[in-house]
Design goal:
The structure is a homotetramer. By secondary structure, the first copy, chain A, is mostly helical. Chain A has ten helices and no strands. Chains in contact: A-B, C-D. The interface between A and B is large, with 43 and 45 residues. Chain A binds a DNA duplex through α2 and α3.
Chain lengths: 198, 198, 198, 198
Amino acid sequence: MRRYAAYQAGGESQIKQKIFAAARRLFVEKGYHNTSIPDIVTEAGVSIGALYHYFESKEALAKAIHIHAVQEFLQRFHRQVKSKHTTRERIQAFVEMMFSWTEEDPVMVEYLLYARPKEVLDRAMSICSEEGLQAVKEIMIEGMRRGEVKQVDIMLLVAPVSGTIIRLIELKLDGLLSYPLTEVAETAAQIIWEAVRA
Amino acid sequence: MRRYAAYQAGGESQIKQKIFAAARRLFVEKGYHNTSIPDIVTEAGVSIGALYHYFESKEALAKAIHIHAVQEFLQRFHRQVKSKHTTRERIQAFVEMMFSWTEEDPVMVEYLLYARPKEVLDRAMSICSEEGLQAVKEIMIEGMRRGEVKQVDIMLLVAPVSGTIIRLIELKLDGLLSYPLTEVAETAAQIIWEAVRA
Amino acid sequence: MRRYAAYQAGGESQIKQKIFAAARRLFVEKGYHNTSIPDIVTEAGVSIGALYHYFESKEALAKAIHIHAVQEFLQRFHRQVKSKHTTRERIQAFVEMMFSWTEEDPVMVEYLLYARPKEVLDRAMSICSEEGLQAVKEIMIEGMRRGEVKQVDIMLLVAPVSGTIIRLIELKLDGLLSYPLTEVAETAAQIIWEAVRA
Amino acid sequence: MRRYAAYQAGGESQIKQKIFAAARRLFVEKGYHNTSIPDIVTEAGVSIGALYHYFESKEALAKAIHIHAVQEFLQRFHRQVKSKHTTRERIQAFVEMMFSWTEEDPVMVEYLLYARPKEVLDRAMSICSEEGLQAVKEIMIEGMRRGEVKQVDIMLLVAPVSGTIIRLIELKLDGLLSYPLTEVAETAAQIIWEAVRA
DNA sequence: GATGAATGAGGGTTCATTCAT
DNA sequence: TATGAATGAACCCTCATTCAT
């Protein structure tokens, strides 16, 4: 049985992983700036020195967490979404993937969604841009080529797909949805599909 | 011609307005925590004392900016959106309102979108929650009562409406859209409409 | 009927007096450094400008309060103590004067006792030194000349007189004495007398 | 030869002791509020961070200094004063203890005498109250029980004892006494004794 | 590898004082 | 006279980072 959220499957020091997990938990819980190095090392049960042994700086730690989240996203995306054949199926698979991931590891998804690049990182790296965006974009481009979706500017198709999914996850994470997201995955996928289909 | 974004039309000290505008600009540009009080007062061309004369603290300043943005949003929403009669028209009006507002005052809209309550504020107040959410929710509830939109959990309708709009604005603000948002307002509204209509 | 504690009997602006009284009250209550100019002007119900019109600075205000207290002390001392003829009578009169003054205007006496020159003033001016000390010293010098008190270093006589009185007032101001000081004036005077008499 | 004033004989960091000593010296010299953190760390030759590593705040530092002084007082009191048998001997021992302590460590005694709780501390802790007061009170209560001292309200006996001693120390610290206090300890004790004896 | 004492720049904030009105 | 908005030096404190052990 694979543990998806585990940081760097092979050969990583256990201490490094403890730091990584503690930092991600605290960054999500209290925000990057409200989390101090002492907070992280206390939560992780390691020393300050250990943290600086494994990560160059607090920012580098945040960056590592982010990169890991993006990579995890891309892995899941390619494995679960790109393998589908029609755009309709891909949208459904994307919704299902994001919803089940949220239920599996809400901390990680929240980090992915909310990390504001400007606050910490020098490059945008959230699902809201770059890699995440690109992934959705590719699906819609292919869908458009096949005539499955509307012939409009590509971003007008990307927006309802990622926007709707992100919004529902946010609502769930904010406690405004009483039911599990996975229960409405099919309905959500259908709604999104009706928005974009030709 | 009315300037909507002006902070408190009447009777406000010019210095207070300069501080307010500078702070909002910097908070959006660099993030709340990466903006220092010296940054703000330098940008505004006033003294530290002046800032603390008008605002109790940095946090209170952020709160004031946020409240103002939310009120501006609600005003525009009620004036431009609630006055329409059908759900289809309301969605179109909402899209148009948000897109033209973004073009008119991108800094303000960006603040509204990105302000992460957990980082600064004790209550969530973004368009992503509470008032903003409530506004969209009311439209969809009425639309459902009239049988104009799908009979599903209300959040499944709220998500594509606000999610798509937010996403498009984000893309625009990130420079990923070459054309003015207002040009695609009608198309966007139609896409959203197809997602939610019965 | 004379009001002893009134600041500068004649011709003083009422505003100046309000500031003076408010400042003394607050300095005693919260300490010099924990009392801000806004605190004083609020308590006095006047403007900041008014304060600076009548007093050069916060320190000058403290100095004025102190000088006034010392002058008040010296006046009372000369009127009520120096007029007595024997050292025994003078000690009794001194005790009675200080005790009744404390009951009449505890705020003023507390200020006199506790004002620590080093915290505010450049010159020592408390009853613990200079004028206050000198006053007691003169009595004891005369008493020694007349052979009424012990022939020892003068300070060994000054100490029990002022020390005992100050200590009892402190105990009273700290709420550690349930009865009025005036009730024990005679006993206290007798105790002091037995300490110093030849 | 024992060094009484040393802060926490065993196991304390040298840096902590340097901060402690520097702070006490400066608090006495210039007053708590006129002593800044930079003043203290410069005087101690350590960094700001070191100060905050060892003491939670400036106030906590003051509190630690105060508690230490009070404990030192109580130790000396019990060792040198309580061990005596008659009230006359105890008074003499108390005078001698305080006078020799003053000569040994004037900074510490001055701190003990002048620390104004209201300015910094939430509980009164000076020799002028609580522990210090209690110590003297106990002696006089026992003396009264034995019929050695006057049968009057206990505070009327406490006042001349502590008042006279404090006053003489103040005079010495203010430079108004040319001779060493220890030289007059016996005379002072006799004077106090005559005040309180039955 | 692992530790945590030590550093000090920079943070937000206060408040005595000035001065145009 | 009288006002209080405006000033900015100085305050206390935090915390990312270093380095001797």
